[in-house]
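Our working data are protein records whose layout never changes between entries. The record below serves as our worked example for the rest of this section:
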Amino acid sequence: MKDWPPRPVIYEINTWHWLSEREEKQLHPLNLGNLPEEAWEDLARRHVDAIWFMGVWERSDLGRELLWNLKEIRLTNPSGIIGSPYCIKNYIVDERLGGNEGLKVARDRLREGGMKLILDFVPNHTAPDHPWTESHPEFYVSGETLDRESTILCGRHLFAKGKDPFFPPWPDVVQLNAFNEGYRQKAAEVLREIAQLCDGVRCDMAMLLLNEVFENTWGEQVGKRPREEFWSQVIGMVKEQYPSFLFLAEVYWGKEGELLKLGFDYCYDKVLYDILREGDVPVLRRHLSRETGFQDHLLRFLENHDEERAAHIFPSGQLKAANVIVSTLPGALLFYHGQWEGRRLRVPIYASVLPIEEPNGELQTFYGWIQSLRRREILQSGKWELLPPFQVWSDNRSGENLIAWMWTYGTERLLVIVNYSPRAAQGRLDLPAFKEGRSGLINLIDLVTGELYPRSVQEITSAGLFVDLPAWGYHLFHFFWP
């Protein structure tokens, strides 16, 4: 990953909806190859390291029909649907989005703005009309022994529908066999072709391909379990030719560590997202207590195309505190299309239109501050350390809802303190970096308000830094220490 910046900020764009939004202002159809200059200027102003153009590959018309056959889909999408971007007919950019040539134009424009490009890879399933269903039926899990509701007839072949073992099968896709050696070789070939078009891939539901998970899901239907893991084999073949190509895993069930060992550069931190929704500070502390080497390879987020809108889920104060947390932790950081504008309505990825929502000016200003904060060199290249729990008192344990960490970059320090609770909290914080015997004052500048807090080094050393924060409050103290 030598060509990637440390701790990159990634902006996920629902490509179809993003183009549709801009098309309303034009007199002609738009695609990735003919966007007006202002579209690229807008992305450049966001100061992110990479754009994830979600959903560029050719969508399946058959998959769209299978979705449309579901009554609940028709009732909730009266304007029609465009089909799922994860029901891929072919790894060719959809002509309606500009085709491969349009994507090349887009990539060049992103490069000019200092941004990299991430695309999708879906290893677990394909559309039922993908060419492989005819040319390589051995790549798929047979549906011959399954009930009718779990299968799709593709020409002469009956295949299992793709699935996550904890949910009913997906209605519009067919299941690939991760144990099939031919498919593994073909997957690496496809990824090498994708690597010519972009700088990295987000791998959909990556944990489903782990040998243990796949065997437990499909049993004897998929043959003998291979000795090597799917991901170590495939990633190894791709990185041999494209060593800087980034692999990002969508992953759940605590499988992040396994996938990182198999070659992924970053994994979703869905655990953190769930903790922040629940508001459990002791659990948050335990999660952040894992080794820094692990923390630095997690992708932090409050939104993506699978989750509800953050502005809808989190009350305003909690939303800002949660953003301060995810934006000041090690690892990569993800924002989603519409998040900065405070969108509240979650739209299915197969929906054809976006509802009109007025931007939230207050949140836009806040996210602008978050973006400038994240660009600080200390957060990109510094050393991160979780600090000890706050000292509390027998008659006031509110400080248990305070959590803090320190960034160090040379003599520069950034102390982040968050009260992640709906009540005021007080406590004292031990700062190991402060050495015994020093005296005088240290000037803590709060990047939130610009206010200066002169504090006695002797008091901090002996009693700890006293902190008093309102509900969902936070300090970001910037200072220098030898």
In short: The chain has a mean pLDDT of 95. The longest helix spans residues 99-112.
